[in-house]
Design a protein that fits this description.
Largest sheet: 2 strands, antiparallel
Oligomer: single chain
Shape: globular
Number of strands: 2
Structural class: mainly alpha
Radius of gyration: 24 Å
Distance between the termini: 75 Å
Strand content: under 5%
Order of helices and strands: HHHHEHHHHHHEHHH
Length: 337
C-alpha cells in the first residue's frame, strides 16, 4: 500500500508540471486549449528519440520543453492571426501533432527501459550519497521495511524541480508581461485600450503553457520507461481535474496559493485514482471513467456545499427577523398593559 501511494505521489509531482501548464491556458488566459493532448506526447516523443540516440537526457528534456513551446505558439497563431475559434484551433493542432509525433518517433512506441535517462542518473547520484539507505532505514524503523521504494532520488528531485517551476511561474505572473497576460484573460478590450498587443500575449501564454506540458511529458516518458503515441489521450481532462480539485480544496486567494493548489490537486488526483484502481471490481481500463467522475464531483461538490451554506444563511436571517418581530410585539404588548 505504501509503495502504491509513494508511486502515485511521485507521478503526481511530475503531472503537476503539466497541470501548471493547463492552469496558464485555462485560468490565466481563459483559453480551452486542447493542444495539451498532443504537446504532451511531443515532449515524450522528442526526448525518447534523442535519449535513445545517445543525446544527454537532461538536454533532451530541455529540448522537449522548446518543442512544446513551438506547438503552443502555433495554436496561438491559428487563433490570433488565422481568426480560428480557440477551441477549434486547439483541436486542429492536436490532430496535426498526432502525425508529427509519429514522424518524430518513426513508430508508435519507443522503449527506454535499458537506456540511461535523467532519472537513472539522479537515482545513482542519490544512492551514492546515501539518501536512499537513510530514508529506507527510517521506514524500516517504523515498520514499513517490506514496502521500500526503489529510489528516493526521483521523488526528492521532482519536488525541487516542481517547486522551482511554481516559484518561477509566480514571479513571471507578477511581472509587467505577466500582469498583461492575466489582464488578457480577464478583459481583452480593457488591456487593448492600454495599447497592449493581446495577440502576442496570447501566443506567448499558450507557448509557455504547452512548454510545461511537453516538459512533463518528457519526464513521464523517462519515469515510465517508454514513449507512446497514444499516451496523451485525456491529458487535458487530467490537467483540468488537478486544477479544479486544487482550487476547491485549497482556494485561489492569490497567484502563489493558486499554483500551490494546482500542485496539490495533481497529487491528490493521482492518489485517488491509485486507491480507486485497488478496488476489486475496477481495472486499469476504468481509469478514464474514474477521471470523469472525479472531475464531476470536483465541479459539483463546491456548488452543492455553497448552496447548502446559502440556505442555512437565509434560514438564519429569517429566524433573526422572526425573533425581532416577536420581541417588538412583546414590547408593544407590555406598553399597552
Amino acid at each position: 500500500m505504501f509503495t502504491a501511494i509513494f508511486g502515485s505521489f511521485e507521478s503526481g509531482i511530475i503531472y503537476a508540471i503539466m497541470a501548471l501548464g493547463v492552469y496558464l491556458s485555462f485560468r490565466i488566459l481563459d483559453f480551452p486549449d486542447l493542444t495539451v493532448d498532443g504537446s504532451f506526447v511531443t515532449g515524450a516523443a522528442l526526448s525518447a528519440v534523442l535519449i535513445a540516440g545517445g543525446v544527454n537526457p537532461f538536454l533532451a528534456t530541455i529540448l522537449a520543453l522548446f518543442a512544446g513551446f513551438a506547438a503552443g505558439c502555433m495554436t496561438g497563431l491559428l487563433h490570433t492571426f488565422g481568426k480560428i475559434n480557440n477551441l477549434l484551433a486547439g483541436i486542429l493542432m492536436m490532430i496535426a501533432l498526432y502525425s508529427i509525433n509519429l514522424r518524430i518517433m518513426g513508430r508508435s512506441n519507443i522503449p527506454l527501459l535499458n537506456t540511461e535517462t535523467s532519472f537513472t542518473k539522479i537515482g545513482t547520484i542519490f544512492e551514492n550519497l546515501g539518501v536512499d539507505s537513510f530514508f529506507n532505514s527510517l521506514l524500516t524503523m517504523v515498520g514499513l521495511g517490506d514496502s521500500l521504494p526503489d529510489t528516493w532520488g526521483i521523488f526528492i528531485f521532482m519536488i525541487i524541480v516542481t517547486l522551482v517551476i511554481k516559484w518561477l511561474t509566480d514571479l513571471f505572473l507578477q511581472t509587467e508581461i505577466g500582469l498583461a497576460l492575466r489582464a488578457t484573460g480577464n478583459n481583452k478590450q480593457m488591456i487593448r485600450s492600454f495599447s497592449a498587443n493581446t495577440n502576442l500575449l496570447t501566443i506567448l501564454g499558450l507557448g509557455l503553457s504547452n512548454a510545461l506540458v511537453a516538459f512533463s511529458g518528457a519526464l513521464i516518458a523517462q519515469q515510465g520507461g517508454f514513449a507512446d503515441v497514444g499516451m496523451g489521450i485525456g491529458m487535458i481532462v487530467i490537467g483540468l481535474a488537478s486544477v479544479i480539485i486544487g482550487e476547491a480544496l485549497f482556494g485561489t486567494k492569490s497567484i502563489a496559493r493558486a499554483t500551490l493548489a494546482v500542485i496539490g490537486g495533481a497529487i491528490i488526483y493521482r492518489i485517488v485514482v491509485t486507491l480507486a484502481l485497488r478496488v476489486d471490481f475496477l481495472d486499469p481500463g476504468d481509469m478514464k471513467v474514474i477521471t470523469a467522475l472525479i472531475v464531476i464531483i470536483a465541479l459539483t461538490a463546491p456548488k452543492m456545499i455553497e448552496h447548502s451554506k446559502e440556505k442555512k444563511r437565509k434560514a438564519r436571517r429569517r429566524q433573526e427577523k422572526l425573533n425581532m418581530l416577536q420581541a417588538a410585539a412583546e414590547r408593544k404588548g407590555e406598553n399597552h398593559a
